[in-house]
Amino acid sequence: MSEQTIIIADDHPLFRGALRQAVSGMDGDQAIVEAGDFEAARRQARLHPDADLMLLDLAMPGASGFSGLMSLRAEFASLPIVVISATDDSTTIRRALELGASGFISKSSGIDDIRAGIQTVLAGDIFTPRSYQDGQEQDADVADLIYRLQTLTPQQSRVLGMLNEGLLNKQIAYELNVSEATVKAHVSAILLKLNVDSRTQAVIQLGKINVAMVV
Q1: How far is CA 63 from the centre of its chain?
Q2: CA angle 73, 75, 81 (to 5 degrees)
Q3: Burial of 167 (0-12, 13-18, 19+ CB in 10 A)
Q4: For 50, which of 31, 32, 62, 198 is 20 to 30 Å away at the CA?
């Protein structure tokens, strides 16, 4: 079995240590890469394009809730991402999966359950806590918004994430290595798909999918 690269993205050193312990106890060889904030997580994903898995804390400096997950899913489409969070109600889990997570592990889980979750996703399956009860989104507006977000192309999702970070068109163009005209076209498409009239409204809409995170 070849070495597996796993990115652990969490701002709490103690919990990163627990995740490292879980990964280290698995069969085979693992290369573990750590990140303490969202930008470091993105940087490590860029440095390790063949990484097998990212464990992503939803409440990390540099990203607010699901916007970070969406941004990473858009940029690293082939990288499975397992959300790690202390906020583990069914609504949070369902939204994480709908927005591209390959699994969800509660921070209250024991080492064995964490390890089982990681192994499940590495095997190509989706992992959720045993307590998770699937169902319909209770908030009709949020259900509609998630559907609209799912219609965005990967590049549009990246642009929306950058709008959420407060970047200007010229900054987004530089980051994506495209023209400002291309960025404006993406923004126009995003506003149309989200049924809003301005960048500010788009960012406000994005914030509606976030639940109150337990840090």
Answers
A1: 10
A2: 30
A3: middle
A4: 62
CB neighbour list of residue 204: distance below 8 Å, 6 or more residues apart: none
**Half-sphere exposure (CA, 13 Å, Cβ side) for 35?**
23
| CA dist., res. 83 & res. 160, Å (int) | 20
pLDDT of 212 over the 50 cut: no
Instruction: Kindly state the tokens that stand for 63.
Output: 């990203």
Give, rounded to a whole angstrom, the gap between the first and last alpha carbons of the chain: 36
Burial class (CB in 10 A: 0-12, 13-18, 19+), 124: exposed
| pLDDT, tens digit, 9 for 90 and up, residues 136-193 | 767 788 889 989 998 999 899 989 989 988 999 999 999 999 999 999 999 999 999 9
Residue that the structure tokens 């698995």 belong to: 26
CB neighbourhood size of 2 (10 A): 7
Structure tokens, 179: 């023209």
Q: What is the DSSP letter of 127?
A: B
